[in-house]
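REQUEST
  id: r-88c1
  op: predict_structure
  target: ABC transporter permease
  payload:
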Amino acid sequence: MIAAILASGLGFAIPLLVAATGELVSERAGVLNMSLEGMMLTGAFSSVIGAVESGSAVVGLFWGIAAGLALGMVQALASVVLRADQIVTGLALNALALAGTTFGARLLFTDRGAEVPGFDGLDLGAVGDLPVIGPALGQSVLAYVLVLSVAVVAVITSRRTSWGIAIDAAGEDAVRADWAGVPVNRVRFASVLLAGALAGAAGAQLALSEVHTFTDNMTAGAGYLAVVAVIAGRWRALPTVVATLAFGVAQALQYSLPAVGVDVPTGLLLMLPYAIALLATAGLVASSRAPSALTRPFARSATGR
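RESPONSE
  id: r-88c1
  status: 200
  body:
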């Protein structure tokens, strides 16, 4: 039972981890990317279309990344260039993505009966037979590629690199960062695009590795959980990873407990990830500090230069 929960929990946690990594970079740069849910949803939808039309799961993955990147472009234009309210813009994009993908799914997938190419779990042989951790390691190739990508992004944007320092400067004090020569809006724009690309990849992972299809609102709040994971992780990489793992296991319990005969009300299981998220943020946010310029748009004229 523990092995099954761990394997399923890791499967749910990987899309959260990928999306949360992009969100962490975006928030460190000063942009609260509330449209993460919509980016994941459009990524999932587009990846399925790409996989079905091309017959290749790899092509579907790139379609998903492109869709997330496109929505990231819209978010960046609205919040960084036009300086619109970041929260309102994000929620509006989420609503648009939900309506658009629901309509598109009913238009394109109904009665089509097409098989969706996807990424299957790896057969690790004797390693997969190891107690507890063996089944958890049997994730898809895409899952391992995305975890590696997250590690690369974490290193490149760490506080020990010039890009990481520029990101933190843009998110802490945009005016002084501009005085020091940091291209604040370009850093923020690039950070939002990165978040969009990773969220699109996370949606593709969910659709092509975990479900092998697309259903209405299949992310079911995963994008919001990724945002909460960044907050619960106190805007640091390692605690954010721990938060995504906790949320992933909580989501896995929705399916694992009934499967083994544990009688728990369905409503309680459905609310479990969000209850854990609420408890995590309530206990940790008070002892942490968000980037000072988070949600604050920057206009270079405000520097007086």
